[in-house]
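F.,

This is the one I mentioned.
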């Protein structure tokens, strides 16, 4: 999630003895995810239009090389964002289905702080650590 979007919303503060993933919490996360999705879509569209506008031929090879390098970096960023859109959509579906905020592996609550940091996550910290350990073991073989 972009730092700019993080600044735009107030972090959720749970009330004492508040039920986990209640209507208020779900509405808060839905707003974050929908705003993020909108921002990602706008960034992707803006990049496409900017690159089309900058498709000018530069006589100076240094200018052309600079523009091509900048475009390459921009495309890598947008590719990461494009890959994030399905994850945001999946998180919104989990809200609709009543599964948001619960670990897909254990069914345990993921936790508000983790979700605020990474609203598309599907694993609790413990489950994520297990996945990463397994990944390292299989990668090292």
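My design for it:
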């Amino acid at each position: 999630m972009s730092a700019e979007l993080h600044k735009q919303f107030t972090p959720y503060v749970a009330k004492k003895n508040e039920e986990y993933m209640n209507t208020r919490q779900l509405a808060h996360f839905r707003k974050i995810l929908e705003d993020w999705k909108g921002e990602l879509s706008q960034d992707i569209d803006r990049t496409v239009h900017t690159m089309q506008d900058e498709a000018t031929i530069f006589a100076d090879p240094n200018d052309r090389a600079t523009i091509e390098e900048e475009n390459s970096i921009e495309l890598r960023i947008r590719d990461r964002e494009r890959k994030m859109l399905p994850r945001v959509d999946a998180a919104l579906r989990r809200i609709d289905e009543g599964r948001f905020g619960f670990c897909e592996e254990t069914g345990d609550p993921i936790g508000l702080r983790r979700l605020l940091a990474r609203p598309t996550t599907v694993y609790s910290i413990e489950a994520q650590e297990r996945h990463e350990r397994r990944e390292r073991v299989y990668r090292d073989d």
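The first helix runs from residue 3 to 8.

Talk soon.
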